[in-house]
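INFO  loader      accepted 1 record
INFO  loader      residues=376
INFO  predictor   begin
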Amino acid sequence: MTGAPDPTKAQKGLAGVSVADTRISKSDADGSLIYRGYPIWEIATNAGFEETAYLILNGKLPTGSQLESFTEGLRERAKVQPKVLGIMRELGRNADPIDVIRTAVSALGSIDSEEDMQGKQMSLEAKMSVLAANSHRVPRGEAPRYPKRNLRFSDNLLQMLTTKEATEYERRVFERVMMLYLEHDLNASSFTVRAVASTLADPYAAASAGLASLKGPLHGGANEAAMEMLLRIKDPAKAGEFLKVAFKEKRKIMGFGHRVYKEFDPRARLCKEYLREMLTRRGGDDTLYRLCEAMETEMWREKRIPPNLDFYAAPIFYSLGIEVPLYTPIFSACRIFGWMAHYNEQLEDNKLIRPDSTYVGPSALKYVPIEDRTLG
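INFO  predictor   done
INFO  writer      dumping tokens
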């Protein structure tokens, strides 16, 4: 239409297109995942959540004093203002928890007293776990739960999410899963955060946009959908028949498949082992693990599609006594650290993200007066 050269056309969903240079993390089709150069196995085996969050944000593991300062900074900023909790309550019991968190984060953009960029980001990182844990309770009129100063970040989130007592190993498992949700290169919500950051909007706006992206079942909602599916099937012996019907009806099986990982998701492998060991230590019923394994076996045999993180994280959350509507909020409480790392990296060498599109509609149409228009 303008005579300008046609832009390079990308595949749908920007598949295979690199839109940024990053030093934060990288997943690969061979089943590898690195956080700032460290293989995920190395981090999951040796680090804690606060250490890993610091690494993602700053590019290196912290010293003892740096970790103490970072942890204290989060503790100092964890209190959510009563006005924000009031806004959450007003949304009512039918509000989706991610909508509740997104609305609360938007409110923080006007209410929060932090002045510098680092303070704003740390406030979001600290408060997101409190918002996540209360996103289902407060709108239902229940009393909010608050963090305790003497607990680690992951232990605090767990005690706000459920009153069920967890063993030391179970608390460690929950922390590992949180670390696996912390960052995953340029996923849909992280790309959304970078796009908003490129406009020079503040971190609250970028996080609100990230939360909006996270709400979709193809991204953040998959862990909840996977658990609901497992609860419907119940019996490992029924996994094959369930999948047979689902394939016939062309239904998507939530918790399986990934844009990058084609053979296996390293995070799913770790969570599978955590689930097995957690249930073994409890003794008794291991039906949930056997059901997951049966689904994995059938999906691979029939479709060659591996499970992703959400598929094995969901039964871990369920076994810890966490309500299903809180699974995606847990995702947000972890991923906020990755989002802020992407926000900062975008601004290091910023250019407004404004891709082109290929127009495929009509042109040169003539205006028709309304009295002369017909349906069709």
